[in-house]
Amino acid sequence: PLAFTHSPGCMFITDLKNDNVTVRPPREVPQVYCISQDPLHYSIVSAEAAEKIETLETLIGIDPGDRGITHLHRRHELLKACLSISHAQSVLITTGFPTHFTYEPPEENDGPPGALAIAAILQALEKEVAIVTDQRAMNLNKKIIEEAVQLGILKRPVPLLSYQRESADSALMFLTEKGNPGRPRFQHLIAIERAGMAADGNYYNARKVNIKHLVDPIDELFLAAQTIPGVTTTGVGDGGNELGMGKVKDAVKKHIKNGDVIACDVEADFTIVAGVSNWGGYAIACALYILSTCEIHDRYLRKAVGFPQLSKKMVWLSSLPSVSKEEKLLKTLVRHGVRSGKTASLEMEVDGLPFYNTHSLMIEKLL
User: Fold this and answer.
1) Every domain of the chain and the residues it spans
2) DSSP H/E element including 277
3) How would you label 324-341 residue by residue, b for 16+ Cβ within 10 Å and e otherwise?
4) Long-range contacts of 228-231 (CB under 8 A, 24+ apart)
5) Looking at residue 5, what is its pLDDT?
6) Which residue of 44, 172, 229, 299 is surrounded by the most CB atoms within 10 Å?
């Protein structure tokens, strides 16, 4: 009863599963995934592309800091998040974790590189992208974005926004045109290594210190997004206290040190758990590249109208993170006093792990 076809090309889609397609190469075998319940939205991808994205998810799922994050892992979340992002025309990214409350700036250097990696591929895919962050960190982020453009990491500057709560409907007004849920300004929200609100309304770093005085209430945008049909959200984290990790909060409370206090209470539709949050950003960029070059997904995305976009393949490829780009960006962050998460050192390290042979190796594996 649920089938349709169209010609030319005779694509045929049905609700009955046919497993008898093994003779074809996996790049021609379509797989269907549900990426939204409200409204109901499915997407299609080749078995080969899905498998590659699954490999990316496995690569970033290791736990170099031995924090117990493997217990938070959910399968297929990277694939579903990226299918959803692939259908979005406009994306809002947020990052910023002011864990070093005794330093200025208090930000750590996990988050911004991942956020910019996602922004770079979104620009290459000709989607609208903006970043929302804390008012007090606007200047710092503006400088980082300007330098990312000079370094060739971004094609052009990403608009920088801040969000303040002024009334009960501030978040709705921010996310939509004149507060109309039928006219969202962003179709997908991504939080990567963003301080997330705990059940008691406070924001905690991994050591259980309340840093609420340094954090703007950007969580409200993710809560409001749940009420706007067609707007989906993704949270990327590595410790359970990041925005979006509310989806796995029970596992955080059980398996992560101080989890009962620090666990973020705010859910995202998709939760990507990585050993280091930046890796999650790199993996999203690579997964979006895989989807864009997947003929089955590309055709579905275009609703089979027009021609494949594959002529832009080199532009997409050149926008992906690389060891040299990430090295330059990390040096820029160090120069601006943005420190490593675990140790607060101003070295070439993120989350206490050295850039060379840890982060550089991960980037190479993902690519």
Assistant:
1) 26-366
2) helix 277-292
3) ebbbbbbebbbebebbbb
4) 228/172, 228/175, 228/176, 228/181, 228/184, 229/38, 229/39, 229/181, 230/36, 230/39, 230/41, 230/184, 230/187, 231/175, 231/184, 231/186, 231/187, 231/188, 231/189
5) 54
6) 172
For residues 267-289, b (16+ Cβ closer than 10 Å) or e, as one string? bbbbbbbbbbbbbbbbbbbbbbb
Q: Which of 155, 153, 172, 150 is nearest to 163 (CA)?
A: 172
Give the residue carrying structure tokens 């592309």.
Answer: 49
pLDDT at 227: 95
3-state secondary structure of 11: strand
- Measure the CA–CA gap between 327 and 171, rounded to whole angstroms: 36
pLDDT tens sequence across 245-293:
999 999 999 999 999 999 999 999 999 999 999 999 999 999 999 999 9
**What sign results for the dihedral spanned by CA atoms 203, 77, 327, 191?**
negative
**Residues 21/22/28/32 CA torsion (nearest 10 deg):** 60
Its CATH class, for the domain covering 26-366, is: alpha beta
162 in helix, strand or coil? strand
- Amino acid 142 reads K
Long-range contacts formed by 141-144: CB under 8 A, 24+ apart: 141/96, 141/112, 143/336, 144/112, 144/116, 144/332, 144/333, 144/336
Angle between helices 277-292 and 77-87 (to 10 degrees): 60
User: For residue 32, what are the β-bridge partners?
Assistant: 44
Q: How far is CA 195 from CA 16, 240, 243, 246, 359, in A?
A: 43, 10, 6, 12, 22
Question: Can you name the residues that pair with 348 across neighbouring β-strands?
Answer: none
The token pair that represents 233 in the structure block: 């959200």
pLDDT at 217 over 60: yes
Among 277, 332, 338, 311, which residue's Cα sits nearest to residue 153? 332
Burial call 354-363: b when 16+ CB within 10 Å, e when fewer: ebeebbbebb
The overall pTM is greater than 0.85: yes
What is the distance between the alpha carbons of residues 15 and 357, in angstroms, rounded to a whole number?
Answer: 47
Residues 6+ apart with CB under 8 A from 269: 36, 81, 84, 232, 233, 234
* Percentage of residues of the chain with pLDDT beyond 90: 86
Q: Provide the pairing of β-strand 188-194 with 90-96.
A: parallel
